Amino acid sequence: MIGALRASTKLRTVALLGIPSAITLCIGLVASHTEAAEPDATPPSQANQYLPPISDLMIATIQPRHRRLWQAAQEKNWAFAAYELGNLRAAFKRLGEAYPTEHDIPFPDMISSVTEQPLEEINTAIEAKDEVGFTKAYADLTTACNACHQALNYGVVVIRTPSGKSDSDQDFTTTEP
Q1: Which residues make Cβ contacts (< 8 Å) with residue 74, sequence separation at least 6?
Q2: Superkingdom, according to UniProt (predicted)?
């Protein structure tokens, strides 16, 4: 009876607070109920956490950054190109951390050996706002990525320098907020 009275009071409070506050309150209620119901619950172990396959990570993190880097340079938005280059480097690093080996090869070392030089050349071109240098370095990165795909027996995955405008919802022409 007391539990039903508390629930009824909480529902009236939710109705008085409005939608945003009500959502926050509901989340808090669910969390407090979950904590009360499972006081000895332990966080899931690393073995139970989902790790997307390399292909998913490539499609979700590497490929869009590769494309956005190109588009930013085409629009001469060098600040965004530098930002996206940093994101691409970090995405490659996280990929190597998530998968220390692939086909019995130290994956972070392979990624580094394939991407280090072209990424540095891209960085140099971005800093100099050098369109020709960027185009060459970007082509070198794309070629290196395809060589890596070949080496890992994923030769069916062939990337290229983008052609035409991006289908992205990103506005690459704005250089300042």
Answers
A1: 172
A2: Bacteria
Amino acid at 155: G
- Which of 15, 89, 99 is closest to 55 using CA atoms? 99
Nearest to 170 by CA among 30, 67, 29: 67
Give the model confidence (pLDDT) of 29-56 as tens digits. Answer: 333 444 444 555 566 566 678 999 999 9
| pTM (2 d.p.) | 0.69
Dihedral in degrees, nearest 10, Cα atoms 139, 142, 144, 145: 180
Buried-exposed string 125-134: b where 16+ CB fall within 10 A, e elsewhere: bbeeebeebb
CB 69 within 8 A of CB 88: yes
